C-alpha cells in the first residue's frame, strides 16, 4: 500500500507542476500594472472570474478521470493540488495589489503571514465541492516598515 501512496504522490506532484505552468492565466500584474489607481473590487472580481474558469475546466478533467479510475487516493491528491494552486495564486495576487498600493516589495517568503491548510485541505483529501479551510497566521506586531 505504501508503494501506491508514493506513486500517487509522484503523479500528483507532476500534476501540480503542470497546473503551476497553466496558472499564468490568473496573473493580473500584466493587466493592471500600468494603472496608477486600481479599484480593489475590480481587481478581485477579475481574479475570481479567471480562477472560476480555470477551476471549472480542471475540475471537469478530474471528474472524467474519476469515472475511469479506481484510484480514489490519487483523485483526492489531484483535487487538493488544484485547490492549493488556486490558494497560492490568490495569495500572490493579493500580495501584488498590496505591494502596488502601498509601494512595498514584499514577497511570499518575506510577508509576515502564513496560510495553513486545515481539514481535508490540510490532509490532502479534497473532494469535489469541499470547502477550503485555511488558517491565517501572522506576526503579532509589525514595525513601521
Briefly summarize what is shown.
The protein is mainly alpha-helical.
Description:
The chain is mainly α and 145 residues long. The chain has five helices and two strands, in the order ααααβαβ. The protein has a two-stranded antiparallel sheet with strand order 1-2. Helix 1 (2-22) packs parallel to helix 4 and helix 3 (40-67) runs antiparallel to helix 4 (72-102). The longest helix is centred in the middle third of the chain and has 31 residues, at 72-102. It is globular. The model has no long low-confidence stretch (mean pLDDT 89).
Structural class: mainly alpha
Low-confidence segments: none
Shape verdict: globular
β-strand number: 2
Biggest β-sheet: strands ordered side by side in the sheet: 1-2
Helix content: 55-70%
SSE series: HHHHEHE
Determine the mean pLDDT.
89
User: Approximately how much beta-strand content do the residues carry?
Assistant: 5-15%
Distance from first to last alpha carbon: 51 Å
Number of helices: 5
Largest sheet: 2 strands, antiparallel
Characteristics:
single chain, 145 residues, mainly alpha, two-stranded antiparallel ribbon, 5 helices, 61% helix
Topology summary:
Blueprint: H1 2-22, H2 29-32, H3 40-67, H4 72-102, E1 113-118, H5 119-122, E2 133-138
Antiparallel strand pairs: 1-2
Helix pairs in contact: 1-4, 3-4
Amino acid at each position: 500500500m505504501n508503494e501506491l501512496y508514493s506513486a500517487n504522490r509522484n503523479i500528483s506532484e507532476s500534476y501540480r507542476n503542470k497546473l503551476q505552468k497553466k496558472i499564468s492565466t490568473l496573473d493580473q500584474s500584466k493587466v493592471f500594472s500600468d494603472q496608477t489607481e486600481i479599484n480593489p473590487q475590480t481587481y478581485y472580481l477579475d481574479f475570481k472570474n479567471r480562477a472560476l474558469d480555470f477551476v471549472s475546466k480542471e475540475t471537469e478533467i478530474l471528474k472524467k478521470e474519476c469515472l475511469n479510475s479506481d484510484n480514489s487516493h490519487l483523485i483526492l491528491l489531484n483535487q487538493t493540488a488544484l485547490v492549493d494552486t488556486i490558494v497560492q495564486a490568490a495569495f500572490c495576487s493579493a500580495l501584488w495589489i498590496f505591494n502596488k498600493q502601498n509601494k512595498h516589495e514584499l514577497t511570499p517568503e518575506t510577508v509576515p503571514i502564513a496560510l495553513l491548510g486545515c481539514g481535508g485541505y490540510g490532509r490532502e483529501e479534497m473532494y469535489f465541492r469541499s470547502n477550503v479551510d485555511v488558517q491565517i497566521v501572522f506576526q503579532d506586531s509589525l514595525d513601521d516598515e
